[in-house]
Amino acid sequence: MSEEKLKMSxxxxxxxxxxxxxxxxxxxxxxxxxxxxxxxxxxxxxVRLFDKxxxxxxxxxxxxxxxxxxxxxFYLRIGRNRRExxxxxxxxxxxxxxxxxxxxxxxxxxxxxxxxTIQGNERVTFTLDYAEIKKSERIxxxxxxxxxxxxxxxxxxxx
Length: 159
Hints:
Number of strands: 8
CATH architecture: 2-Layer Sandwich
Shape: globular
CATH topology: Heat Shock Protein 90
Order of helices and strands: EHHEEHHEEHEEE
Structural class: alpha+beta
Distance between the termini: 27 Å
Number of helices: 5
CATH class: Alpha Beta
């Protein structure tokens, strides 16, 4: 196995100010995640809310997913402006995101976020842990797993 790593670089206070405080209410945070699905060419988004046995929110979409490199180069890069880069989605949609901050909405909903995404025949699953991010010094390397899957459908999940 190679020495691949995922890494997020940031000022530690950014997560608190632009995630936790801006998205402390459920509806705006979920709206941001649905907008992310739209930007990924999704035509269907499912939002499920669970109270028992544990409080959790599961968001599934049929978007194009992200490769390992796309996660590292784009998703985990806070503040990336796709509009400025003039980058339309593969399905021709103009991105709704403006500031590259929507992913921080996750931390307005919970402290531990698991993201699973499939592109081609590879699934990448990684966990963003708010407590660990706060402890890190500008670079956060989330735990991740990669696995081969059948490339029969498109799906990105943000549980």
